[in-house]
Design brief:
By secondary structure, the chain is an alpha+beta fold. The chain folds into three domains: 149 residues, Sandwich (Immunoglobulin-like); 153 residues, 3-Layer(aba) Sandwich (Collagenase (Catalytic Domain)), CATH 3.40.390.10; 96 residues, no CATH class. The strands form four sheets. Strands 8-10-9-11-13-12 form a six-stranded mixed beta sheet, with helices on both faces.
């Protein structure tokens, strides 16, 4: 309790200080193009090493020219850019990483050593800068782990234009990239003859996203691009089904051993494809019928295009990658082993370990007569959820048809919605136990939300506020 209280005071001080700063003048230190540094992140459960891979000159800078210093305080990591000559902080951004997720798996805890490719991007500096990557500790304070000096005149910086023949389409054009959120949608598992399908899939799912609140009220704050890069074969790898294909971005089901989780380890090819346009965020659309997706804050999101739950997944995963929202569910099987450490307050804006109403992140949204914690017949829900998850796992293990699995899931989703609607505090902001893959000790703000249930139930008020904070950061 003392740790959480201390952390909250520090956050109030830090956020207040950062908001009071206007940051350096963009034109004094940067040029209107992008520097991307690819690096290797290597280690085990409790060890990590960074090493530079390559540096690239990319398209014009898509981000804000005024909000150069991070004020959102999201992510397990924070990268900072300093002017070498004066040591002035010029730029910073929070982010998460595949390596960071992998560290929470059983494989990492066995002291297996793995390496992942990662990237940071920032405006092109006019003179030498020092890049610093910091990581959060248990008290949510950042500690520097790696420094690397970059000379923008280095002749080894790569300036090649990748995928020069790829067709670029602007699905939403709202204005200057510096004042908008720029999203690029990339295809994986679409052959050259399936690019028409990719465009239809992208437009269909984008319309679902932009019809969801609060995105609906902020459509004019977004530019959205597609880049057509084709795969030699349709679909993506599905290791549990013995399926392997030649797909351009190397996305695969079964990431970290979770059947539905889709990631790619090929960071460089994703970044090269995205570099065809100015972008802040990346969405990879998967040409598959099977349920699946993934989202990592400030890295990318993935989603299959043709599953009955694709609308939900597309919006849900963007909540992760865009606004740093946590998964609020806790009954599904996941690949992680103690993703949130006991006694540590999660940095994500929509879950908490705090039970003192005065220090809950969303305490200002809780009505005075709402009990804390908030009752919601959790035991009834847990019993039905466990029954469903057991049945679904058996069906997957038996390799039954996806349509049969989807039918069982749809029936459970209908029960779930009826259950929520009949609860006393449905639609209220409170403190509902069960969140972040943990049945006990972590709490979410609402009984159900886009980050909790597999439905288009919408984002609750707390998640909507977090999304709007991210939109404002990139557009003001």
């Amino acid at each position: 309790m003392k740790t959480c209280f201390t952390w909250l005071i520090l956050i109030f001080i830090v956020v207040g200080t950062v908001h009071a700063q206007t940051g350096p003048s963009f034109d004094n230190y940067f040029m209107d193009k992008t520097l991307r540094l690819d690096y290797f992140h290597t280690g085990t459960y409790d060890q990590e090493v960074y090493s530079c891979d390559e540096i690239y000159e990319e398209h014009v800078w898509a981000g804000s020219k005024t909000n150069l210093l991070d004020t959102l305080n999201l992510g397990n990591y924070l990268f900072k850019v300093y002017d070498v000559k004066t040591n002035q902080l010029l730029f910073s951004r929070g982010f998460c990483s595949i390596f960071g997720e992998w560290q929470t798996t059983a494989e990492a805890r066995k002291k297996v050593r793995r390496t992942f490719s990662e990237s940071v991007r920032f405006p092109w500096p006019k003179r030498s800068v020092k890049l610093t990557i910091a990581i959060r500790d248990r008290d949510n304070l950042f500690h520097d782990r790696w420094d690397y000096v970059i000379d923008p005149t280095d002749p080894n910086i790569r300036k090649a234009a990748y995928f020069p023949d790829a067709k670029v389409t602007k699905l939403v054009s709202s204005g200057d990239s510096h004042d908008k959120v720029d999203l690029v949608i990339l295809p994986d598992g679409y052959t050259s003859s399936e690019m028409g399908k990719f465009q239809r899939d992208a437009r269909r799912l984008l319309s679902v996203l932009l019809d969801a609140s609060p995105f609906k009220a902020h459509e004019k704050d977004f530019n959205v691009w597609t880049v057509e890069i084709s795969s030699s074969q349709s679909g993506i790898d599905d290791p549990r089904m013995g399926k392997y294909v030649d797909n351009v971005l190397s996305c695969s089901f079964n990431a970290f051993g979770s059947d539905r989780y889709i990631l790619t380890w090929d960071n460089k090819i994703v970044r090269k494809a995205a570099s065809r346009v100015p972008y802040d965020f990346i969405y990879i659309l998967i040409n598959e019928k099977k349920y699946g997706g993934g989202g990592i804050f400030n890295v990318y999101a993935t989603c299959t295009a043709d599953n009955m739950w694709s609308n939900y997944v597309f919006v849900h995963e963007f909540g992760h990658s865009f606004a740093g929202l946590a998964d609020e569910y806790y009954t599904s099987d996941v690949a992680y082993d103690n993703f949130y450490s006991a006694g540590v307050e999660p940095w994500e804006p929509n879950i908490t370990a705090q039970t003192n109403k005065n220090f809950i992140k969303w305490q200002g949204m809780i009505a005075p007569d709402t009990p804390i914690p908030t009752p919601w017949d959790k035991d009834i829900y847990d019993s039905r959820a466990q029954e469903y998850q057991s049945q679904r796992k058996q069906m997957i293990d038996q390799k039954l048809p996806q349509a049969q699995i989807d039918s069982v899931t749809a029936a459970y989703a209908r029960w779930e919605q009826d259950f929520f609607k009949s609860r006393t505090y449905d639609g209220k902001v409170g403190l509902f136990e069960g969140a972040g893959y943990s049945s006990r000790g972590l709490y979410r703000p609402s009984i159900h939300c886009q980050m909790f249930t597999r439905s288009m139930s919408g984002f609750d008020r707390v998640c909507q506020r977090a999304i709007e904070n991210s939109i404002h950061f990139y557009t003001r």
